[in-house]
């Protein structure tokens, strides 16, 4: 979990592909969940290292994600809310 300042700095940094890392913006986490812990909006996750490892973790935990490849070598996963959570928000 990163503070907003570290999240922005990460965009400019180059991190190695040796480590398997999943990054989350601390402020985005706070506004992405309702009071019951349900995800109410897509949450951006940045992944470095073994992308297949990250995909396996999401699949094994039944977490719906959308994947994008940006900047040529950085993968971004967007954790998607379940339909019930979105309906509850309205």
What's the helix and strand layout?
Elements: H1 4-12, E1 21-24, H2 26-32, E2 43-48, H3 51-60, E3 65-70, E4 74-79, H4 83-89
Antiparallel strand pairs: 1-2, 2-4, 3-4
Overall 3D geometry?
Answer: globular
Main sheet makeup: 4 strands, antiparallel
Order of neighbouring strands in the sheet with most strands = 1-2-4-3
Strand content: 15-25%
Secondary structure category: alpha+beta
Q: Give the termini separation.
A: 28 Å
Number of domains: 1
| Oligomeric status | single chain
Any overview of this molecule?
With 90 residues, the chain is α+β, with helices and mostly antiparallel strands. The protein has one domain. 37% of the residues lie in helices and 24% in strands. It contains four helices and four strands, in the order αβαβαββα. It has a four-stranded antiparallel β-sheet. A hairpin with a 3-residue loop joins β3 (65-70) and β4. The longest helix has 10 residues, at 51-60. It is globular, with a radius of gyration of 14 Å. It starts with a helix and ends with a helix. The model has no long low-confidence stretch (mean pLDDT 80).
